[in-house]
Each structure stands twice: as structure tokens, then as C-alpha cells.
Write a structure and sequence with these properties.
This protein is mainly α. It has a domain at about 20-70. About 60% of the residues lie in helices and about 0% in strands. It contains 3 helices and no strands. The protein has helices spanning about 15-20, 25-45, 55-70. Helix 2 packs antiparallel against helix 3. The radius of gyration is 22 Å and the shape is elongated. About 10% of the residues are buried.
Amino acid sequence: MTDKKTAVSEQPDSLKEDNRAAPFTLINYLLFAIGLLDIVIGWFLLRGGHITIAPIMLIVGYCVIIPLAIMFRKKIAENA
């Protein structure tokens, strides 16, 4: 019979840190809410005929605030 050993897969340190931290924090949710509010206001302005400010608000909401809310991560101080 063959001797089977339990292999523990070693993960890089960056993956270990990601597993411990929650993916989204309060800041992420607040940014997401601000982005959604900006988009909703932009759609209402577009419906009202404001063809200058509404597209700007929609682009900022969709292309800046929402991606920022998804990608934002708080810097963790290393204790060395």
C-alpha cells in the first residue's frame, strides 16, 4: 500500500490576508450608496430635460464612483 500524506497547500501571503479581511467595509457601502444616488438623480435630471448636467452625473456615477466603491481597500499597517 502506498503511504498517503496530507498535503497542505501553501498560499502566498497576499491570499492569506485577503481571506481574513471582509471584502467590503462601511466606506465601500457608503461610496456605493452615493454612486447609486448620483445615478438616480442623473436619470431624473435627464428625464427633466437637463441635457448638460445629467450625462455628466451619469458618467461620474457609473464610471468613477461605483468602480471606486468596488475597488477601494483600506491600507493595513504592517506590524513588523
